[in-house]
Write a structure and sequence with these properties.
Bound molecules: glutathione
Mean pLDDT: 98
Strand content: 5-15%
Structural class: alpha+beta
Radius of gyration: 17 Å
Strand order of the largest sheet: 2-1-3-4
CATH topology of the largest domain: Glutathione S-transferase Yfyf (Class Pi), Chain A, domain 2
Number of domains: 2
Order of helices and strands: EHEEEHHHHHHH
CATH class of the largest domain: Mainly Alpha
Number of helices: 8
Low-confidence stretches: none
């Protein structure tokens, strides 16, 4: 049984939950982080979520958690079994953690969570996110998913952002391949269950949704 420590409305936790759902693995999730705080002895030195326990092994850093689960339980599916596709999955997973996160997180936290920002920063974040997602749109031409015909860790790490990117009140460029890919994600039961979690429009609604999601597995 895998234990996930992390609140349900965290995008980084959602990556892990979605992975578990795709792999059909049994799990237990505990509410940690945000308004739930951190229990004594929480085994992540960074004091952030998610953290997973898989037997005696503790893993933190969301993309490392996704990789661990995919390599251990999803080789040939979420972790492709040929080296070219592994490299592509890795490449885009790194891109999620670096380029697109740098553009998207200040936009999301400024617009929805009430973190300090300015209209100029929000505009820049939306423009830069649109530009970067445009690169992914080009890559997706002729591909169902990021590494080909089947879902991989790259789709999970980037796709976990997409629900928010596509539903936030921001300007988005028209990107047909990206929109089709997103639509394919929304048809997956594990995506609907773990990622398409309403997050509210402001800090008050965010806090309310966080509590409403307490205890949901
Ligand atoms: N690089 C880390 C970032 C983790 C992170 O910053 N998580 C956020 C939630 S998405 C967090 O823990 N925020 C503080 C909190 O919820 O208490 C990862 O990918 O796991």
């Amino acid at each position: 049984m895998i234990t996930v420590l992390g609140r349900r409305n965290s995008m980084n936790v959602q990556k892990v939950m979605w992975t578990l759902g795709e792999l059909n693995l049994p799990y237990r999730r505990e509410d940690v982080g945000g308004s739930f705080g951190y229990p004594p002895g929480y085994p992540n030195p960074m004091q952030v979520v998610p953290t997973i326990r898989d037997g005696d092994l503790v893993v933190w850093e969301s993309n490392a958690c996704v990789r661990h689960l995919a390599r251990t339980y999803g080789t040939g599916t979420l972790w492709p079994d040929d080296v070219a596709r592994q490299a592509q999955a890795d490449m885009w997973t790194e891109w999620q953690r670096s380029d697109i996160s740098n553009a998207f997180f200040p936009l999301f936290t400024g617009l929805i969570r009430g973190f300090a920002t300015t209209p100029e920063k929000l505009e820049r974040g939306a423009k830069e996110s649109g530009r970067l997602f445009g690169q992914l749109d080009t890559w997706l031409q002729g591909r169902m998913f990021i590494t080909g015909d089947t879902l991989s860790i790259a789709d999970i790490c980037i796709g976990a952002m997409m629900y928010r990117y596509m539903t936030m009140p921001i300007e988005r460029p028209t990107l047909a391949n990206l929109a089709s890919w997103y639509h394919r994600l929304t048809e997956r039961p594990a995506y609907r269950r773990h990622v398409m979690v309403e997050y509210g429009r402001n800090p008050g609604e965010w806090a309310q949704r966080e509590q409403e999601n307490a205890g949901i597995q």
